[in-house]
Write a sequence for this structure.
DNA sequence: TTGAAAGCGCTAACAT
DNA sequence: ATGTTAGCGCTTTCAA
């Protein structure tokens, strides 16, 4: 058995090269290279000859050789906290789309939600000579190694304090304001916050913003960004629910966990308690009631990060080292509009 | 500005090479290579000298040069239908973990749920000289191009009919049997099926299995694997609900959409209608009621696929060209146990 | 056991 | 505008 795969590899060993094309076209391999990468002027005749020869022999450029020579792999690495969270999945999808569109590709590294592995993964990606690293860090801990990564680094959504860092993110501060204003406008004034320990920049920002807009006196429960935590926090909240008519959650996962426990305990959402999330993952729309949340502009986030990295790779200046994109309030059943 | 990034790239241009290590250690670069890749016997003295020299100059092998020479990139490509579906995200995460553990890496390609792009993406990955392609296809359409991909191809979960194909999957047939048996055991006998058009192998298999176990006469609604479709199908189902006491859905996304619409329409799940899913994505546990579903052994699926690919890459035979892993019934509130 | 030399496939100086 | 040559950093004959 397995003849096919063996055969495959044998043919793969003898893929046509620039030399084959050159011979077929009756020119030098340099000319072939120049035509194919349109790096330098060439007579229409040579160009045509090369193109048709390449077609005839079935030539495909070898990006490995190209990379060795040019010192560019035309690839970026993306470090995400956890691909099981659809928000990060969506960012990965969008980044891959942006890159593919320009003939680049994406290497993935998943941190599995373990903090402190950012530098290790970045160095690992760098050892594969990615031209840039895009990163959504897990926590605020900035491992020293990160400043040793010898290529542009662009952080998305959250950031760790590295020197001269470049970051593309959603305006979390404004997002929280939109949520609080919406809740107030619909008659909810006794807010509580269920968030994540401020070990990541976004957790810190969302917490601080909540305190700023809702007041320092409001109850705050801090854990992590998981639905699991949302469940536990909701159980705690249930004991003090008398003083609360709305729960602002730091992300959708938490909110979904909260809603589940509230309903299990016979409370009505939103009648007894409104709940809001953050991110607008696919499942925000799928819970019952559906989740009122802040939509992060995922596609723009990813393409802006890719563009920033491309700019840095070219050695050019960046207009914004901290690019902040606007959030969007999405009103659904868990904290409805009107009143 | 941007001095740091410029500086970074300058230093990057002069990373130490085997020659630097050789000079430092007082041996030839051949010996360095042999020590570092432990390809051939070497005296302990040379070995020690090389190792410490490598350490001193901060040597890191250049995988690009290595790849050009050895014709192996130590990487695999993974093609997924849509990273926004946490099931595929989980597979990607697990595959990345398996590979990383062996010092390999993963290139991602996302089909964005558009059928027929499998071959194009595979060829694209192959042009980056990945040593194998892992694929979860969108549909059954087998574009010709796929047989032109000159490296081992391992399909996961679903498959298209390519010659000599290798596939690693969960036993969907058994999964459906577990669900139907469970529903029957809890007194549900009037089952309906909401599935996807049999344009993918898993859709076909789950549909056929349902008909086999639940009987040809039971109502069947076919669309795609999305929650959106689940919603629409549930609306249709509502008109004929009198004859139905349980809905078997072909995946969790569909089931979540179904549950949402049922509840919106005042039905009780599971009291009026039990609902089951398939996959056991993270959100199966997060809906209310939580979803009774079939857990796919994602980690095993991914690592088995990686191992199969490694075997083919080595040119060895495969024990199973169709590896079928056992599913697991996970009973939760949407179709509870007991009675 | 070790080294010298060739070469993977490509692009970039440097000629012409 | 084109060709010649060198060389990216590594592994692998081939000889010693």
């Amino acid at each position: 058995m397995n003849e096919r795969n063996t055969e495959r590899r044998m043919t793969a060993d003898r893929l046509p090269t620039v030399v084959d094309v050159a011979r077929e076209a009756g020119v030098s391999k340099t000319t072939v290279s120049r035509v194919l990468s349109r790096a330098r002027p060439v007579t229409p005749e040579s160009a045509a000859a090369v193109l048709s020869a390449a077609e005839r022999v079935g030539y495909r450029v070898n990006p490995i050789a190209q990379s060795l020579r040019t010192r560019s792999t035309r690839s970026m690495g993306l470090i995400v906290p956890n691909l099981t969270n659809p928000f990060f999945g969506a960012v990965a999808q969008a980044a891959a789309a942006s890159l593919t569109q320009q003939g680049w590709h994406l290497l993935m590294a998943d941190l599995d939600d373990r903090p402190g592995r950012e530098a290790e993964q970045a160095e690992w990606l760098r050892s594969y000579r990615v031209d840039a690293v895009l990163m959504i860090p897990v926590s605020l801990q900035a491992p020293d190694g990160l400043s040793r990564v010898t290529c542009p680094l662009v952080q998305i959504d959250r950031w760790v304090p590295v020197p001269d860092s470049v970051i593309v993110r959603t305006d979390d501060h404004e997002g929280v304001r939109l949520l609080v204003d919406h809740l107030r406008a619909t008659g909810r004034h006794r807010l509580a916050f269920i968030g994540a320990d401020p070990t990541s920049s976004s957790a810190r920002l969302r917490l601080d913003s909540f305190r700023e807009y809702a007041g320092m006196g409001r109850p705050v429960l801090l854990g992590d960004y998981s639905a699991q935590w949302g469940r536990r926090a909701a159980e705690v909240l249930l004991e003090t629910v008398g003083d609360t008519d709305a729960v602002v959650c730091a992300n959708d996962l938490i909110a979904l966990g909260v809603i589940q426990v509230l309903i299990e305990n016979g409370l009505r959402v939103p009648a007894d308690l409104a709940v809001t999330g953050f991110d607008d993952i696919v499942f925000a729309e799928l819970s019952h009631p559906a989740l009122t949340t802040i939509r992060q502009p995922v596609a723009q986030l990813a393409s802006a990060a890719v563009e920033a990295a491309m700019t840095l790779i070219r050695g050019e200046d960046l207009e914004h080292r901290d690019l902040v994109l606007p959030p969007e309030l999405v009103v659904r059943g868990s904290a409805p509009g009107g009143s």
